[in-house]
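Case study 2.
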Amino acid sequence: MRHNFLKRILGGILTGCMLVTATVHAGTTQKDIDKAKDQITDLKKQKEDAKDQVDSLTNEKQGLESDLSGLNGQLNTITSDMNQLEQQAAQKEDEINTAAEDLKRSEERSAEQYEDMKVRIQYIYENGNQSVWDMLIHASSIAEFLNQAEYTSAINQYDRNMLTAYQELTEQIKEQKKELEKQKEELTVLQQEKQKEQEKVNSLIEDTQNKIQESGEKIEDAQSDVESIDAKIEKMIEYEKQLEIQKAKEDAARLAAIKKQEQENRSNVTYAPAQSDAYLLAAIIQCEAWGEPYDGKLAVGSVIMNRVRSSYFPNTVSGVIYQGGQFSPVASGRLAYRLEQGVASDCMSAAQAVLGGTTTTNCLYFRVNNGIIEGTVIGNHVFY
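Prediction:
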């Protein structure tokens, strides 16, 4: 009897060592999984930031393209205005040339008229007396003489009128030419101003085009970052999957050892809940099973209570929940946040029911169902 008793004790000690080793491995693997999850979360945040950068740069590029379109419209308007001014300047130049020719002809005719008039006046003065006697002697009548005298006077008056008219026309043409030259100068000033506007807009267009090109290059770089992060996320997801497989193997090995050595009947083990157990249990249920059906919440609570009743886990609710490497919300800080913010009523109801003796599963483990682990599926979790 003594020999058998010692044998059982030694067997228990060896089993305990196996379980401790399995626990260390499981804890290490869970930490790796949690670390991988954190890295994936961080990468997803980086991806969102990179996508935001792509969107921001795209909006900036679209804004620059809109500005460029507006600048091209301004340039077209300026070019059209410059063409019109050029046509007006050419037309004004033609008008000035025409006025100059008219002025030259008017001055020439005025000079000719003046010379003709001088000749006639000189002739009259030099031959005035003889001409009067000749007209009187040769006239057949007084009426004829008077008609000839009136004719001579009319010629003199005509010369004066024509000279005056040519002089006035010359002055008018001079004023017209002067006004045309003034208008041409104004057109030249407008052309110069439009030229400056054109140069300014061309400079803005070139600057905007350079910015658009830079934005395009930045978008390509940012998009490349998104793709690179995507590739990293895929690798990390695959790595996490491998860790999950490894964790499942370790959990299965540990569970097999527990089942092999555990001879107690958990249903006969009683547990007196501490005053804070209900709130703590409700908080971890909400962290692990928020959004799951009520049965899923009860199942999570049952797993925790099964561990409390097992001799291979801590024998308190807080001990099980805070055991190293077992529940990721503990390591990530989500549990502490939930304890601070409060728990949902259905999670509290599930916790109270489980603490009151309701057990919906005999499993010791659960995780998100990824199709790798065989067990009882409730909602999005598999219990095993």
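The two ends are 37 Å apart (CA to CA).
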